[in-house]
Amino acid sequence: MRVLIAEDDPMLGSAMQSTLGRAGYAADWVQTGRDFQGAVLTHQYDCAILDLGLPDVTGEALLREVRSGRAHLPVIVVTARGGVQDRIALLDWGADDYLVKPFDLNELTARIRSVMRRTSKDDDAATALCHGSLRLFPQRYSASWRDREIPLTHREFSVLETLLRKKGQVLTRAQLGESLYGWGEEVDSNTVEVYVHFLRRKFHPGLIQTVRGLGYQLGPAEHA
Predict the structure, then answer these.
(1) Mean pLDDT across the chain, nearest whole number?
(2) CATH annotation of 2-119
(3) In Å, how far are 142, 144, 191, 198, 199 from 151, measured between CA atoms?
(4) 3-state helix, strand, coil in the chain (%, to 5)
(5) Residue-range domain boundaries for the chain
(6) Do domains 2-119 and 124-223 have the same CATH topology?
């Protein structure tokens, strides 16, 4: 699961990125509204954390822009303004949730989980990724195999989702690694291999095939 953080306070932004990284999210962090706009246009995110007080573009303008172009992207606003009218305005602009500064970082992760549960009410049949008897439900971050639900960590889910969205393609370790970590985070050389191993154990050894010298791809549908 990839999260975009827009926060111009270096200490808070870094702390949020580190906390979400430890929780298993791939967290990208930007410090300006223009960088937020660029990231939303060029990357696929599951949730955005948006500070209203960015230095160059107002939070209201960014939120309205997201809603006009990417209505499906859940947005949690962080703000120093906690009055009733401020909170009403945030929701009217299209925020899915909000946090008033200062806030506990563990509450932030809980709010992300809550927002994702609420937005998962979309029709699973329309959003599910399928391969044989494997079903992956991006809206609620769950998977089933042969009609049995399979628990996955955030990073296991991210690797499997990437492979399913690129079905038929061979993906390098670097391409799969991008789904696990935010910008600038150091990726261990064997990280992808570890999660591929976990997924093979949870589903079927033939679900993910190693293409020697290149990377990985989904195996035949009968192994799913």
Answers:
(1) 86
(2) 3.40.50.2300
(3) 7, 8, 19, 11, 10
(4) 45, 20, 35
(5) 2-119, 124-223
(6) no
Q: DSSP character for 223? A: G
End-to-end, the C-alpha distance of the chain in Å comes to 22
Please state, in angstroms and as integers, the Cα–Cα distance from residue 128 to each residue in 4, 62, 151, 161, following that order.
Answer: 23, 29, 16, 10
Q: Which CATH number fits domain 124-223: 3.40.50.150, 3.40.47.10, 3.40.50.300, 1.10.10.10?
A: 1.10.10.10
The radius of gyration of the chain's CA atoms, rounded to the nearest angstrom, is 18
pLDDT tens digits, 45-100: 889 999 988 989 988 889 888 888 765 789 999 988 877 887 888 888 888 999 99
- Please give the distance of CA 146 from its chain centroid, rounded to a whole number: 26
**Predicted confidence (pLDDT) per residue in 184-217, tens digit:** 666 666 888 999 999 999 999 999 999 998 999 9
